[in-house]
């Protein structure tokens, strides 16, 4: 496979699965990488390229830490992790890889009207892991990205032979951040309709009708804390407008396929993390995910849905780091 352009010098052997192309940005408001980050393109088996923002750990004392692979949700892309959490976790000793799912960010778009399904998105994540990482990673997923990871876990745990295992490589752990619960978002919507009809209208208008793209107050209310500065909300609003060139899913087909299959064993450690001020995933949605995986969810005070971008983003990062360090000791 030809390697036409890369931002960092890397040994040739590690570049075989990548197609690093010198091509125009797909986002009209491109995300500028931070110091120590590089953008590469992982070529999937069917030829499309998936954007990956990479930030490596530079401390040799932490070379055995599991790599971290980040998966975004709707209206986001790899940049949402690169802004704060990639610098934080790489400085803490972890190699970090933030993916942009197909049709999002700088990734290629498939033919059709939607970017994919739970199966195809999870398969793309698995292909990246299988072809590029030597150690079993920790997957971190936000919102619908968390649901994709849940599908991955279900398939990982249901596989019984080594031939199937290769399609969904083993994980060291998984972190579900403000994740859509295993049953999908329909329960969230119905609860809002009966308990908070005004909020239900706002959520539907903001997300389904994409009204957050034209309203700064609605964008803040949907994704961020009330104290988030206007200039930051505006910046992220512009990036979100450009991040999703097509819907992640056909929601009707998605809801018909849910809930995700129940795991059959506990081979992968799971952290379920929520935000007290989440406008999208309510407390019952967080608790449903915890019950599904038989873990006690952690709800962070003073943080909104976009935990990795919000004012108090370090609160969630610190909880995850403590959990990761526990995994590192035992692996």
Q: Can you give keywords for this protein?
A:
331 residues, alpha/beta, 8-stranded mixed beta sheet, 12 helices, 37% helix, 13% strand
Structural class: alpha/beta
Instruction: Report the β-strand fraction as a percent range.
Output: 5-15%
Low-confidence stretches: 1-17
Report the end-to-end length measured between terminal Cα atoms: 34 Å
**Biggest sheet architecture:** 8 strands, mixed
What spatial order of strands do you see in the largest sheet? 1-2-4-3-5-6-7-8
Shape: globular
Number of helices: 12
SS elements, strand count: 8
Report the C-alpha radius of gyration, rounded.
Answer: 19 Å
The overall average pLDDT, rounded, is 87
Run of helices and strands: EEEHHEHEHHEHHHHHEHEH
What is the helix content? 25-40%
What does this entry look like structurally?
The chain has helices at 79-82, 85-91, 118-132, 144-158, 162-165, 186-195, 197-208, 216-223, 230-243, 251-257, 283-292, 313-330; strands at residues 37-43, 49-55, 68-71, 96-99, 138-142, 173-177, 269-275, 298-300. By secondary structure, it is of the alpha/beta class. The chain has an eight-stranded mixed beta sheet, sandwiched between helices. It starts with 36 loop residues before the first strand and ends with a helix. Mean pLDDT is 87; it is low at 1-17.
């Amino acid at each position: 496979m030809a390697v036409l352009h890369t931002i960092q010098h890397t040994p040739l052997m590690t570049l075989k699965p990548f197609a690093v192309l010198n091509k125009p940005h797909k986002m009209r408001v491109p995300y500028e990488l931070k110091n120590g980050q590089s953008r590469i393109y992982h070529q999937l088996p069917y030829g499309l390229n998936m954007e990956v923002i990479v930030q490596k750990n530079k401390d040799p004392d932490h070379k055995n830490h599991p790599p971290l692979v980040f998966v975004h949700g709707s209206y986001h892309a790899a940049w949402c992790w690169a802004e704060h959490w990639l610098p934080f976790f790489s400085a803490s000793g972890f190699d970090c890889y933030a993916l942009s799912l197909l049709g999002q960010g700088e990734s290629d778009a498939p033919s059709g009207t939607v970017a994919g399904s739970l199966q195809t998105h999870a398969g793309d994540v698995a292909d990246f892991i299988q072809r590029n990482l030597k150690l079993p990673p920790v997957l971190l997923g936000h919102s619908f990205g968390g649901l994709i990871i849940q599908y991955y876990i279900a398939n990982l745990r249901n596989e019984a032979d080594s031939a199937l295992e290769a399609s969904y490589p083993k994980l060291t752990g998984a972190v579900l951040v403000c994740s859509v619960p295993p049953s999908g978002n329909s329960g969230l919507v119905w609860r809002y309709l009966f308990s908070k009809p005004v909020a239900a209208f706002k959520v539907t208008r903001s997300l389904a009708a994409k009204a957050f793209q034209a309203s700064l107050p609605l964008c803040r209310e949907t994704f961020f804390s009330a104290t988030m500065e206007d200039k930051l909300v505006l910046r992220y609003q512009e990036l979100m407008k450009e991040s999703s060139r097509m819907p992640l899913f056909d929601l009707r087909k998605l809801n018909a396929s849910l809930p995700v299959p129940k795991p059959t064993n506990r081979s992968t450690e799971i952290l379920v993390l929520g935000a007290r001020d989440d406008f999208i995933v309510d407390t019952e949605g967080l608790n449903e995910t915890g019950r599904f995986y038989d873990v006690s969810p952690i709800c962070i005070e003073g943080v909104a849905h976009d935990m990795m971008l919000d004012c108090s983003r370090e609160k969630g990062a610190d909880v995850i780091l403590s959990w990761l360090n526990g995994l590192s000791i035992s692996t």
